[in-house]
């Protein structure tokens, strides 16, 4: 039952601790939009997206106002465009990105994900065309996000794809150089990508999903930190219990809202993504949660252990609160989107190597990392390969969203704006990985991947 105390507690979480629903994302299947005629396919895509989501924003805003809980982003994910556009005779898919952007603008959403390709084992014609279209597509659109899955635990790491993505990131950075290489902030490279992820830039609507569905990504780092302030000096057993109980409350609030939106739109509720998603605002930081556990600064020794506890406790509490947990779930550690992480980088507490270690136990991976603009494509590819190895060996989702900021170097800062925040330029290893990346081929799956 929902009583006065629960209502007042939720109001307090919103007003004092920056609790919000980070996103409600509508997934839309475009499988019936494929056509040999690219122009016809794009018209079908535009018509379907705008029809299916025409009431999404106003419905979400009505529920947000009625319940008093902020819903920050309204988003759409679609079937990977490499699958849909592959039927056409087009030699570039930039026009598909443009039509997605027009549809996103028409319905008033914040981001649209699905300019994507799944190439963990190999490439189709459509995959190759889409990947080579990414730099221009992200340069000429505002709301379109792109992702490429280059590895999974069943087949290993497609190192040919990893090599290509280093070049693609560099080209994207150059084409958006006037905006601190912002295009790269809309591109993520995955290992073990999931088909029901509501978070950008990695969202796409998988082929095993509903025709149309709604998924929600909750937030609440500030709420968790506030809860931990009440148990300073207590054991980690107590810390874990407090986080679990807090995650339970956050998840229940999120599910209540998305089910109401689902009912009003008559669209199936899909999944709850439990990820703690920070923002650049003070008091909304995952790094500050870790420091509340007793670390002088996020990044010092003990940080990986603290993050492991946080991630596990969030999932345990959320799973108790919802029967439909999915997406990525856990704790994001994007540098530019977390004021505590930004401060830790500036203080020298966090390096790229430490972030990589932290990704072994968190939800995704190296997220919103700004590096010098002259970082080589092979170094970017090697960073991707390392992160993919963590995902493949540990059978978890990992990803890289890295931004070589054109014209800037260590000690400078990139400004992305909004939820994307700002990022200090971080150093990369000065030694070359070029000969390693040039080998190509496929790094085989680990022996424990064979479970049939």
What does this structure look like?
This protein is an alpha/beta fold and 452 residues long. The chain folds into 2 domains: 25-54 and 70-191, Alpha-Beta Barrel (Anaerobic Ribonucleotide-triphosphate Reductase Large Chain); 216-449, Alpha-Beta Barrel (Anaerobic Ribonucleotide-triphosphate Reductase Large Chain). 43% of the residues lie in helices and 17% in strands. It has helices at 4-17, 38-52, 56-67, 81-85, 94-107, 125-140, 159-175, 221-229, 236-265, 286-292, 303-321, 339-346, 352-358, 377-394, 434-438; strands at residues 21-28, 71-78, 111-118, 144-152, 156-158, 187-191, 212-218, 269-273, 366-372, 398-405, 413-415, 422-424, 442-443. α3 crosses α9, α8 (221-229) runs parallel beside α10 and α9 crosses α11. The protein starts with a helix and ends in a 9-residue tail after the last strand. The mean pLDDT is 89.
Question: What is the CATH topology of the largest domain?
Answer: Anaerobic Ribonucleotide-triphosphate Reductase Large Chain
- Class of secondary structure makeup: alpha/beta
Tell me the distance between the termini.
44 Å
The structural domain count equals: 2
| CATH class annotation of the largest domain | Alpha Beta
Given as residue ranges, the uncertain stretches (5+ residues, pLDDT < 50) are none
Q: What is the mean predicted local confidence, pLDDT?
A: 89
Tell me about the largest β-sheet.
11 strands, mixed
Radius of gyration: 21 Å
CATH architecture of the largest domain: Alpha-Beta Barrel
Helical percentage: 40-55%
Number of strands: 13
* Secondary-structure element pattern, one letter each: HEHHEHHEHEEHEEHHEHHHHEHEEEHE
Summed up, the helix count is: 15
């Amino acid at each position: 039952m929902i009583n006065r105390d629960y209502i007042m507690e939720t109001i307090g979480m919103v007003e004092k601790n920056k609790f919000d629903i980070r996103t409600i994302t509508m997934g839309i299947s475009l499988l019936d939009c494929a056509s040999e005629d690219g122009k016809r396919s794009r018209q079908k895509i535009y018509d379907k997206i705008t029809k299916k989501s025409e009431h999404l924003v106003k419905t979400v805003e009505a529920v947000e106002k009625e319940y008093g809980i902020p819903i920050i982003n309204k988003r759409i994910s679609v079937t990977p465009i490499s699958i849909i556009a592959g039927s056409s005779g087009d030699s570039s898919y930039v026009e598909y990105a443009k039509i997605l952007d027009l549809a996103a603008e028409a319905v008033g959403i914040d981001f649209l994900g699905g300019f994507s390709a799944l190439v963990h084992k190999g490439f189709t014609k459509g995959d190759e065309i889409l990947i080579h279209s990414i730099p221009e597509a992200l340069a000429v659109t505002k709301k379109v996000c792109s992702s490429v899955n280059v590895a999974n635990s069943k087949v290993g790491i497609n190192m040919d794809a990893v090599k290509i993505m280093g070049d693609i990131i560099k080209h994207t950075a150059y084409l958006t150089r006037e905006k601190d290489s912002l295009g790269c902030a809309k591109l993520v490279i995955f290992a073990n990508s999931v088909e029901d992820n509501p978070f950008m830039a990695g969202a796409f609507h998988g082929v095993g999903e509903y025709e149309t569905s709604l998924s929600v990504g909750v937030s609440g780092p500030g709420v968790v930190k506030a809860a931990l302030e009440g148990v300073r000096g207590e054991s980690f057993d107590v810390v874990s219990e407090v986080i679990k109980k807090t995650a339970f409350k956050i998840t229940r609030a999120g599910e209540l809202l998305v089910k109401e939106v689902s009912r009003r739109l008559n669209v199936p509720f899909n999944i709850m993504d439990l990820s703690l998603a920070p923002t650049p605002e003070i008091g909304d930081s995952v790094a500050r949660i870790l420091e509340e556990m007793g670390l002088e600064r996020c990044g010092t020794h003990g940080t990986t252990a603290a993050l492991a506890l946080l991630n596990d406790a969030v999932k345990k509490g959320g799973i108790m609160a919802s029967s439909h947990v999915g997406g990525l779930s856990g704790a994001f550690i994007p540098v530019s989107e977390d004021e505590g992480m930004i401060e830790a980088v500036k203080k020298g507490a966090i390096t790229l190597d430490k972030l990589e270690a932290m990704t072994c136990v968190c939800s995704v991976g190296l997220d919103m990392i700004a590096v010098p603009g002259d970082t080589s494509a092979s170094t970017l590819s090697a960073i991707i390969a390392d992160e993919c190895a963590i995902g493949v060996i540990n059978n978890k989702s990992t990803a890289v969203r890295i931004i070589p900021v054109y014209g800037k170097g260590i000690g400078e800062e990139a400004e992305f704006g909004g939820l994307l925040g700002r990022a200090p330029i971080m150093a990369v290893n000065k030694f070359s990985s070029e000969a390693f990346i040039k080998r190509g081929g496929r790094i085989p799956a680990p022996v424990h991947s064979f479970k049939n």
